[in-house]
Write a structure and sequence with these properties.
This protein is α+β, with helices and mostly antiparallel strands and 310 residues long. The protein has four helices and 14 strands. The protein is rod-shaped and about 200 Å long. The mean pLDDT is 87. Bound molecules: zinc ion.
Length: 310
């Protein structure tokens, strides 16, 4: 009976009960009870811990949501600012483009106007040369001889400049206008000679003017001859280059010497009646490539040339 325990329970009404239990069973029961208590305590602890962690996680999530919201708001604000600035820059850019376009149009207009003016002037110069029968054909330079001939038909600025330059280069040597303003008393060509009344070829024109009137040369050049003979009287020949020469006869006196460089309009002598002459006049000749040409169209050139702007 050593291994048995007697548990006596005394009631209020003096009822007494006695339980017999082996020591082993009691130990087992106590152990089981303690195990249950420990297990319960463990799970309770774990549950509490999880609950706490869940709460923390919820808090963190809420914070993160707030931060996200704030970030989104900031992004929206920045977007709005950027959109505003972009719109501003676009407006500025459009204004600049508009301004440039306007300037470009103005420039085009000016260029076009200048080109028109240049074309008119070029046409005047060409008409002068055409009137006096000078061809202004532009050939390739001698360095490129044999190359294709390219006619200048387009009205590009460079072409016009080139053409005008070429024409001006020629026109510098072309005797234009009259050396003396007076009545033309004898024309170029066949005529009855005023001295011997025979048919002869008159290689110039006679311009009647009183003795001593200034005679002006009709283009830039160099005095190539100066002298006196019975036929021409006092005479001067000016070489203008490009095949042009002018001759001035019957002068009272010449005011230049051989080799002098002269300018168009420069006085080279005075009207007289020296040599084979019937009265004071200038006998004026133009030679082109060593042949006399009719000076009349050169003398009257001003009347045949349209003025600029018309
Ligand atoms: Zn004559």
């Amino acid at each position: 009976m050593k291994n048995k325990l007697h548990i006596v329970v005394t009631g209020e009404r003096e009822t007494t009960r006695s339980y017999v239990m082996s020591k082993h069973s009691l130990a087992t029961t106590i152990l089981a009870s303690v195990s249950v208590v420990i297990t319960l305590a463990f799970f309770t602890f774990m549950g509490l811990r999880h609950s706490q962690q869940y709460g923390e996680a919820q808090n963190k999530l809420a914070q993160a949501r707030q931060q996200l919201q704030a970030a989104q708001e900031r992004v929206e604000r920045v977007d709005a600012i950027i959109a505003e600035q972009v719109a501003e820059k676009e407006a500025e850019f459009a204004a600049i483009v508009g301004d440039l376009q306007q300037k470009s149009e103005k420039r085009e207009e000016l260029l076009s106007s200048a080109l028109g003016e240049l074309k008119t002037k070029s046409e005047i110069v060409e008409s002068i040369l055409k009137t006096v029968g000078i061809k202004t054909t532009i050939k390739e330079s001698s360095k490129n001889s044999g190359g294709p001939f390219t006619p200048l038909t387009q009205d590009s600025y460079e072409d016009l400049i080139f053409k005008l330059d070429h024409s001006l280069d020629i026109i510098k040597s072309v005797p234009l206008g009259t050396p003396v303003y007076g009545a033309i008393t004898s024309l170029y060509g066949r005529r009855i000679d005023p001295i011997n009344n025979e048919v002869a070829f008159h290689s110039g024109i006679d311009i009647s003017k009183r003795t001593g009137t200034s005679i002006a040369t009709t283009a830039d050049g160099v005095v190539s001859e100066k002298g006196y003979n019975d036929g021409h009287g006092n005479y001067v020949v000016v070489d203008h280059g490009k095949g042009f020469r002018t001759r001035y006869f019957h002068m009272k006196k010449s005011l230049v010497k051989k080799g002098d460089r002269v300018k168009r309009g420069q006085v080279i002598g005075q009207v007289g009646s020296t040599g084979r002459s019937t009265g004071p006049h200038l006998h004026y000749e133009i030679h082109y490539n060593a042949k006399s040409v009719n000076p009349l169209k050169f003398v009257r050139i001003a009347r045949n040339v349209p003025s600029a702007g018309k």
